[in-house]
Amino acid sequence: MALIRAFTGALGGTFADQWLDIITVDRFDEHAALMPGVYQETNRGRGSNTRHSDAVISNGSRIYVPENTAAFIFDQSGIENIITEAGGYEYRTGGTDSVFAGDGIGKSIFGQIGERFKYGGEPVANKRVAFVNLREIRGLKFGTPAPLMYHDRFYDTDLDIRACGMMSLRITNPTAFIRQFVPPNVDYISFDDPKTKSQLLSEFMQSFSVALNSLSNEYRISELPSQANAIAQAIAADEGNAGTWESRFGIHLAGIGIESIEFTPESRELVKQYSANRMNVAAYENVSQQASNIAAQQKIAQGVQESGFGDMGGMMLGVGFAQGVNPMTGAMPGQQVAQQAAVAGAAPASQPEASQASSGQPAMSLSEQMDALKSLKELLDAGILTQEEFNLKKRQILGL
């Protein structure tokens, strides 16, 4: 029974493969790089070449090559022929004999039946056609799987950033692409497949990181999106990773579009703190010394509060320093002048004067009292002083 099946298979296959074939390619999707050739069997229901054998191309068959594609004809030994120009071609090199190609009945029919019968009814030929996409393959997304470190010259520190965008590739050497990039016996490759692009993306991100660091001495992070061309050139010139694609795989990095480069949340918080501190200082530039002292007093009080220094002596040390109080004596400038004048004069104080000094009358001027009270009120409003502490200091300043 096996011999009968082998004979009928050889006979039926031989007659089915006498038809000449029309081979072309289906529509390429946006990211497809390699597509198999397909047999055009029917056209609007008309056509009888529906039982042909796989991997068999009859002599005289037609191969249609669309624009921006290259056709590869494979046989048992590998690449048999390459067609790089668009057009229709008649296949005459090593195909299966056909009576419709003028190969004769004896050779085309009886010779094939005998040859196929020896192999159980199967054809010996193994021919395949595949098409390589030579058009620029656009819209391949990339993104940093982990934060990249970038030294921003403006902040003079290392900041973590994330980046995303798209790149485009073009196959410039289809032969190298087939031999070095495409696995054996594979006739479909798409860059949508994670297995296909995983190695390329890893090498691209390595080159991307090198390119970013090479620009850190000249550009801030906010200026990097405008340097997409410089980044692309630096990546293409990286001889260790993406710059080797063309020589290794016949793939050229045609373009890079950077959609965003942004700080990580931690780095964004550092930048906010830097900006806030700078604005606090800039707000008091080119103003009077008195206003600058108030700003300093507020910063000192804030530092005392954050460090947990709850001693009111330390608090008043910061306040007194901002307002011009001598931190050793607690005296205001007016008091120091009066004391120095009293020592220089060395005049004995009379009993009424001593009584007046001991009565607790304030030695501060009215303007100094107002300034001190204003500063204390700001500390009270900021929550640094309690109401009781404010009242105590107010009485001390006013001499109540």
From TrEMBL:
- Can you give the residue ranges of the SPFH domain? 116-276
Q: Where is the composition biased (Low complexity)?
A: 343-363
Q: Which organism is it from?
A: Bifidobacterium choerinum
- Descriptive protein name: Putative virion core protein (Lumpy skin disease virus)
> Where do the SHOCT domain residues begin and end?
371-398
Q: Which domain of life is it from?
A: Bacteria
Pfam families with a match to the protein in the record:
Band_7_1, SHOCT
Annotated spans, Disordered: 343-366
